[in-house]
Amino acid sequence: MYRKLKITEMGRMSVEEFHEAAKLPLVVVLDSVRSLYNVGSVFRTGDAFRISGVVLCGITATPPNAEIHKTALGAEDSVAWRHFSDTIEAVAWLRSEGYELLAIEQCEGSTMLNDFRAEEGKKYAVVLGNEVKGVQQQVVNACDGCIEIPQFGTKHSMNVSVTAGIIIWHFFNLLKA
Questions:
Q1: Measured between alpha carbons, how far is 81 from 171 in angstroms, rounded to an integer?
Q2: Can you list the positions of beta strands (E) in 86-177?
């Protein structure tokens, strides 16, 4: 028989301890994501796997925000974040900080996620796009590569927060903080 653990039994770190802890060398960039619930979910998943940060771009809302908080549940306070009005500016800043930039998009010549291998010692930034239009073409052009999540059903895309979870999990398994 299994007994669910109480929150007090899980030994989670405090926000202060999180800020000091080693991070996964991964930043998630949200390129004009409309849904505040998707934004909050990315923060919460980012917290779970101790990513280095979230970069919010364009129309993507920023904390503090009640709708972001509803899904982030406070992870917007633990995960570092920064906002840029233009995603191209964010890409340039991340490149100057030593990140390899990868658009998560269906592109000619993209690398399927199951074939992607991260290199130890490298820092990565993944760009996820708007719920309808995806990653802007000019942003795709500015990235170092594209990663595509294989899909086998009738739909051509997945929810942004689900995509973020799959991508973060994959990088966590490759790079572990």
A1: 19
A2: 99-104, 111-112, 123-129, 145-148
Domain assignment of residue 14, yes or no: no
Where do the H-state alpha helices sit in 49-142?
66-72, 75-78, 87-96, 137-142
- Would 4 be classed as within a structural domain? no
CA atoms within a 13 Å half-sphere pointing along the CA-CB vector of 126:
29
Q: pTM for this structure?
A: 0.96
Q: Which residues pair with 31 in a beta bridge?
A: 57, 129
State the CATH number of the domain containing residue 162.
Answer: 3.40.1280.10
User: How many other C-beta atoms are found inside a 10 Å radius of the C-beta of residue 137?
Assistant: 12
Check whether 177 has a pLDDT greater than 60.
no
Q: Kindly state the tokens that stand for 86.
A: 């233009």
Q: Is the pLDDT of residue 170 over 70?
A: yes
Q: What is the pLDDT of residues 58-73, one digit of tens each?
A: 999 999 999 999 999 9
Q: For the residues 110-116, what does the mean pLDDT come to?
A: 97
